[in-house]
Amino acid sequence: MSFINAVTVDEIEPGTGKTIELEGQAVAVLRDDAGNFYAMDDACPHAGYTMSEGEIDDGCVECFAHGARFDLVTGEPDSPAHEPLAMYPVEVDGDVVKVDLHA
Ligand code: FES
Predict the structure, then answer these.
(1) What is the pLDDT of residues 25-50, one digit of tens each?
(2) Which of 38, 34, 24, 102 is CA-nearest to residue 75?
(3) Domains of the chain, with CATH numbers?
(4) Measured from the CB, is residue 46 less than 6 Å from ligand 1?
(5) Does the C-beta of 28 come closer than 6 Å to ligand 1?
(6) pLDDT score of 1
């Protein structure tokens, strides 16, 4: 495990997300209404739109472009996407959200 600092907790309101660049890679960090953080590849595997603009609900994020829903734990999608999102472990350390891109 090699967690690196991604964002601070107060940078992302519950129910929203943000695209950040980590090690040259675009990563979407999302926060659900319960305050849990998730990290994934920013590009939707369907047509490449950003996942950080997706709606977060019921353990899933829904891509704003064409509505594919991805499980926030497994990254598995429903239609029209067919490939899962790469998900990354997240650790909250005080007010810092850390992501491991190499787990
Ligand atoms: S780009 Fe995400 S569902 Fe089409």
Answers:
(1) 999 999 999 999 999 999 999 999 99
(2) 38
(3) 4-99 (2.102.10.10)
(4) yes
(5) no
(6) 66
